[in-house]
Structure formats: C-alpha cells, structure tokens
Amino acid sequence: MTDTYKFLLPENRIPRAWYNIAADLPAPPPPVLHPGTGKPIGPDDLAAIFPMELIKQEVATEREIEIPEPVREIYKLWRPAPLHRAVRLERALDTPARIFYKYEGVSPAGSHKPNTAVAQAFYNREAGIRKLATETGAGQWGSSLAFAGSIFGLEVKVYMVKVSYNQKPYRRALMETYGATCIPSPSMETAAGRAVLAQNPDSNGSLGIAISEAVEIAAQNPDTNYALGSVLNHVALHQTVIGLEAIEQMEMAGFWPDVVIGCAGGGSNFAGIAFPFLGLKLREGKDVRVLAVEPAACPTLTRGSYAYDFGDTAHLTPLMKMHTLGSSFMPPGFHAGGLRYHGMSPLVSHAKELGLIEAKAVHQNPCFEAGLLFARSEGIVPAPESTHAVRAAVDEALAAKAEGKPRTILFNLSGHGHFDMQAYTDYLSGKLEDRDYDAAALQASLDALPQVAAE
Amino acid sequence: MTDTYKFLLPENRIPRAWYNIAADLPAPPPPVLHPGTGKPIGPDDLAAIFPMELIKQEVATEREIEIPEPVREIYKLWRPAPLHRAVRLERALDTPARIFYKYEGVSPAGSHKPNTAVAQAFYNREAGIRKLATETGAGQWGSSLAFAGSIFGLEVKVYMVKVSYNQKPYRRALMETYGATCIPSPSMETAAGRAVLAQNPDSNGSLGIAISEAVEIAAQNPDTNYALGSVLNHVALHQTVIGLEAIEQMEMAGFWPDVVIGCAGGGSNFAGIAFPFLGLKLREGKDVRVLAVEPAACPTLTRGSYAYDFGDTAHLTPLMKMHTLGSSFMPPGFHAGGLRYHGMSPLVSHAKELGLIEAKAVHQNPCFEAGLLFARSEGIVPAPESTHAVRAAVDEALAAKAEGKPRTILFNLSGHGHFDMQAYTDYLSGKLEDRDYDAAALQASLDALPQVAAE
C-alpha cells in the first residue's frame, strides 16, 4: 500500500488539445435544425451570437483541437487539478472499492465552469467582441464567465434566475467583484423578459427564461455575443481537460477505473470527465462503465424524450436533438440549481442512445447524506450538484462491499459548496424534501415538444 | 522569461518538521506568567486545558520539531500549497517588481488555519481527549477545528462571537457540516458568558469573551481541552509549514524575496510565512525584510504597548508579554474579523522588539481596493484579512515602480473570501467606512493593563 493519495501533474502536463468525441463515435450526432425552416443550420445562422472559432468547434470532426496558449496560460492558475484517492471515505464505508475523485473546486470560481469560460472569453476577444451576455442559475456559470471576462477585458452581463438572485447574494457579489453586471431575470430589459412579466409579474424566473434574455441581447447588439455554460458541443469539448488529466493521474495511481461518474445537468462536467475515457473505450477497447447521475426531480436522461427541442423558453435557440423534459417543464424545488435544466447535452444524449453511457436519478436527501459523509471523511464540502456524483460513487462502493470484490471508482467532484451552505443547513435540520416532479405536467410538457419533419 | 508562474512541490516535500524560531532568536522570549502568583507558569498550570505535547512545544527550544506522520497524511489533502507568481497583477500595476504569493486558501476550510487545527486535534486525540472547546470570530478558525475534529473523531464545540454568528450563517453551516456544535457567545452556558449577559443582555460578544467561555468549559471538564487558533507559540510553530514550503518554491522560481509580507491579527499566518525566512536571516545572514500588516482600526503592533496582558476578557488565561491594546479594547466595526484581536503572538511581538520585523497599519477601503484588483487580475478573491497583505504587496510594487528598480515581493494569501462576499458588496456599493479607533478608549484600555512585578 502506497501512502500517496493525491496525484498532481506538473504544469506542463496541462493538455495541449481538447478531445472531441465526435471523431470516435460510431455514428455522427444528429444535426442542429433551424427552428423556422426545419433544415440543418449553417455557421451563418449562429454568427450573430457566437464567434466563428466556437461555431467551428461545434461541428468539428477532428479528434484533437489545440488549446490556444493564452487559454493554457490562464488554466495554469489552477490546473492541472488534483486527483485524490478518498482513503478515509473508503475506510468509513469499510469497502474493498478504491474511490478516486478529480477535484475541480480548486478553480478561482470554485467549480469546473472556468474550463470553458476562459476558452469562450478568449475566442470572443480574438473575434473583436467587447461584451458577453449569459444566464446563470445557481451562479457557478455566471461567476466563472465574470472571472474569465475580467481576465480578457470583456464586459459581462449575467441574467440570473430571480429566485437565485435573491437567495444567493454571495454569488452575485462574486460576479460583481469580477466586474460583471448581474440582472435578476425575468427583467424589463428584453422582450422575452417583459413577456414573462406581463403574464406573471411575480415570476421567479427559470434558466430557460434567462437564456432567452441573454440570447436576445446578444442577437440585437453587434458588439455583444452570447455564452452558454453547458449543453453545447464546444462546452463539452473544453471540459475534456478534466478527463484527459484524470487519465494520466489514474496511470500515476496505477489503477484503471471500472466506472467513471459525473453529475449531469446540462451535461458538461459529466462529458468532461467521461468522454476521454469513453474515447479510449471506443478506440482501444478499454473496458469502462460511465455513469451520469441526475436529480430525481429533473430526470432528463432517465425520463425525458430523445427528441428535437429548444434550449430556452422563448424558443429563440435552434432545435437540438437531445434528452428533454420539454422546454416548459418546471421541476419542483431542490438545491442543486445547476442541475435544473430541461435538456441535456446533445452529445451526451447521443452517446446515451448509442448505449455508451448509463444514467440514474437520485433524490437530494441521499445526495446530501453522501455529501456530509464525504465532508467529514475527506474534508471538502461538495457543491449540491456534486453530491449527486458522490452518492453514486458511495453506492458503487457499497455494491463492491456487498459483492466482496474490489472495484475502482472515479468520480468528478465538480465544485465546492462554500456558496451553497444553506442547503447543508436545511439538510441538517431535516427540512429538505425529496419532491417528485408532477407526472401529468411532464407529460403535458413532452406532448408540447416541437413537431419536426421526418429526420 | 519563463512561462511557469505556479510552483508546485510534490507531496513528499511537505515538511517533515516544523521550524521553531525560538532556537535562533538572539534573546529568549519573556516567560508566560501565572496571573495569581506573577511567577512563570509551569507545564502543570496548563495541563488542565492543553495536552502535554503542545505544552512542550510552547516552551521548546530545539530548532526542528518533527511533524507526526498522521498529521502529514492529513496535510496531504491540500499541501504542499501552491506558490504563484502574480504576473497579471504585475502587468496591471506596470511595475518592475516580481510579486509572488503563497496560497493557503486551497485547504478544505479555505484558509491557513487547518495547518494547526489538524496538529492540535491529533495531539489531543493521542492524549485521550474526547472533546475540544474553542472560540471563533469570523469563523475561519472554528470551521478549521471542526474539520480537524471530524477527521480525528473529536467532538468540537465552538463559541462564536454573536455578531458573526448572526451575520455569517454559512460559516456556522460549515462547522455543523463537519459535525461541530456552534454556540453564540456570550452564552448562558458559562459563568463568563452569564456575567457579560447580566451586564448587557444585548452584547454582541467579542473574541475575548468567547475565549473566556471556551477556556472555562475546558478547565471544568476533564474530557475537554481548549484549542486556540492563533497567538500561542505552538500555533505559530505549526504554521511554519507555509514558509518552509515557500522557501523551496522561491528557489524553484529562482528568486529570493526582498520582502515577505503577511497580515497579522493574532500573528499566526504572518509567523507561518515569515519565521522560516527570518531563520535563514538569523542563521545565514540572508537579507530579507519581513512586514506584518494590521488593520488601522485594531493596530496592535503599531499602537499597542509591549506589556504583559491577558489573552481574554474574563482574565482566565495566563499573562503573556505581547503587543496589546488591552483586553478591554473594543475596535470599531470592520470586515476583517480575523484581525479583531487586542493582542499579538508573543513570539511575533518579541521579534518586533528585537527589530527583526516591520509593521504597518492600513484602513479597510484601500485593502479592498487591492483585493478587487487582485481578484480581477489573478482570479482569486482574497479573504478580507488577506487583503491587508495584498495591499502591502501592491504598495511595495508601486514603490519599486517609483524607484524604477525591480524588487521581489512574497506575500501570504492566507485564505479565499467566498464566505465573506458581503464585505465586497459593501465595498463596491461605497458603504465601507474607514473608522479609526477611539484614542481615549485605547488609552483607558492601556492604562488598565495588569500590573506585573518587576520582570
């Protein structure tokens, strides 16, 4: 038994290229469609809101896409991120399993989101863009883009879901500390926001509404682009630095994972850790299970339809084929705000359809139970989103114990929970409810999915 | 020019011994006195509240004190901590200075405090102690001891200054997540607390009062010890891992610092980064300035007397010779709660009297100005306490610019500000006041210092 439980790569091992799983998938992902024509969109359809380099990445088929040096220079502030073996958690569970976790909470914003925020800010600045508009739910993405904007000298405007804006003043303060402007959504600044407020002046907002507002602002202002923190192919691409580093670190540790686990909301942190391992499976036949974990209250991969849908509420975005609960679906309240999204990364969805990944949905109380156990054994308090991955890793370890056989488990600890401590307070005081989604409302939302001509 | 700006040591370079500056000082520090007899205290006087290993460290004269392996194993969760060169801050300041910072915010509790919390919890567990009592102001120490207690299976009870208890529910949540009990101080649980509440039922509390409560509980319960997060020699000792690592990392970077900077409240993070460099100066004649930075509203080193004083309000502690504002001194409100203490580490005070260290006091607005600049250039949002070190580093860099000569600056970034974002919101909205202490009240507090027979 070694006494090394933390696996650190030197700075020069930050990956020089992102990994594009599209190059290795046995079938290409379905095209993105123009909502007006129902035809596949071209680069020009997206040029009003994205820089061309990101549009190219969205449809790229080459396996490796070089990471620009200025992006790698900023990555060096916190990357390579550490990979730990959770020995104290293993002991607490009395399991023969080996549990490893990649820790992305070391970034300045406390989560994996800066991996793509920095890249997106860079490409936009290179394209001469001065301002970025985006949305945020729990605030992890908004604060990450605010950080990246401050580094590259871009103005950042964040439409923050109103309920989070009011409940999470510290997240807002973080964005403002980085120099960004934070606006509660729905707002009177956009037609999309005004339409919602006209119907419901007390609207608490949703990610779908906030996306509509940010896209509208970007579409109407030539000096402003839009940035999205998950779902899209280029976002998943940028996050693959997580898995690429983890592969090297697992080699240092001397173990190959039997299962790789990530929580999944829009799918980017899951894709980030899982796709590089899946690539080795596809190219070299390496055996590995990959498991996406989602909230039972917003079970996109396990209960959604695989269908074309809009990314937002106001239906300003193109149509993407993905697992979706329908853009009008409103999940019941739960604490992992970063997992409250009706859709799922088209690449993750496609991989699921191809049988390459497993998915499971879990309630929040068992997630916080696992998060608390993790905090008390490993010291790091996981973000509410990340507790979903912790829960699944603990369950895998308990299954190994029941079997009496070792198993190597790797999960992505996507962020720390220092901005989300109210969730732990609620859990400790027994106030957290495990609410299920409304099955009838889900069916209605699915019935309202856009009709798309024969694909 | 190299493109490496982060200097990481491998895990096996975590120091194997703490550095004890007492071995190298040209004169021994004055003894600690028994408040009843006025005579130097012996180990037995402290045995009711501290384990013998820590008492021995308090008076140790050997240069190196071995770090127990179980402590190093926990250190590995986040140590060695990174040392960065702040190239983007240098560019923002357009300075010829080279600015380096050691980042202690990577610990699970987000500050340097776990360096000693883990050691203290370990020695107490080894001594058969089941429970620890302590106090906390801003919450960094309380959450660090809670973390360490959870790792070593000790119950931790934290008396939290009431104003912070009410203003910082996230810090409290963090302690509770680690399994600790958090009690607003003054409380009805102790004679010290009841005495304060009898005089002033609305008392907001103070660190001095909270210390009295925790010491009282520890003194009265054989299974309970007391733990202090700063001031004492053994605490400064444990923090020297910061400077010991930094020396190696500055060698990797190829520069020797002209000045080493730390913020100073009780003095432990300052001692942690500064003492190992001072040791090289004392033993090998290496040239280095060391600079302690304190809040202008609580200017212990720059305006306090060097005199024997109590560590707490109820005068339960031994008398220590230190820079002090008097135990009845109440600073005006400011955000760096971790620097709101009337006294200063006796070792730091002694070194100051010996002319080995410089000190300066700064107001909070210029500190947050520097903290904001740091966040927007380097990405990390400093804790309010740490902004004092940032301010002084920026001032050194500006002085180098005015001189037109390079200068190498190293400061300790003792923690991140994710739990203290309200301070940034207040700064950004122009609400932060730079209040001065009440000079008459300070004089009265100094006049009331205990009379100690000829030393």
Description:
Chains A, B: Residues 77-415 form the Tryptophan synthase beta chain-like PALP domain. Chains A, B: This is Tryptophan synthase beta chain. Chains A, B: Tetramer of two alpha and two beta chains. Chains A, B: It comes from Rhodoplanes tepidamans. Chains A, B: Its cofactor is pyridoxal 5'-phosphate. The structure is a homodimer of 455-residue chains. Chain A is of the alpha/beta class and 455 residues long. Chain A has 2 domains: 6-14 and 67-110 and 234-446, Rossmann fold, CATH 3.40.50; 114-228, 3-Layer(aba) Sandwich (Rossmann fold), CATH 3.40.50. Helix content of chain A is 42%, strand content 16%. The first copy, chain A, has 19 helices and 15 strands. Chain A has a 7-stranded mixed β-sheet, sandwiched between helices. In chain A, helix 3 (69-75) packs antiparallel against helix 5 (114-126) and helix 5 (114-126) packs across helix 6. At the A-B interface, helix 6, helix 8, helix 16 and helix 18 of A face helix 6, helix 8, helix 16 and helix 18 of B.
CATH class of the largest domain in chain A: Alpha Beta
Radius of gyration of chain A: 20 Å
Rough outline of chain A: globular
Counted up, domains of chain A total 2
Helix content of chain A: 40-55%
Strand order of the largest sheet of chain A: 1-4-5-15-10-11-14
Number of strands of chain A: 15
SS class of chain A: alpha/beta
The total of helices of chain A stands at: 19
Please mark out the parts of chain A with pLDDT under 50 across 5 or more consecutive residues, or reply none. none
Function (chains A, B): The beta subunit is responsible for the synthesis of L-tryptophan from indole and L-serine.
Subunit structure (chains A, B): Tetramer of two alpha and two beta chains.
Catalytic activity (chains A, B): (1S,2R)-1-C-(indol-3-yl)glycerol 3-phosphate + L-serine = D-glyceraldehyde 3-phosphate + L-tryptophan + H2O
Keywords (chains A, B): Amino-acid biosynthesis, Aromatic amino acid biosynthesis, Lyase, Pyridoxal phosphate, Tryptophan biosynthesis
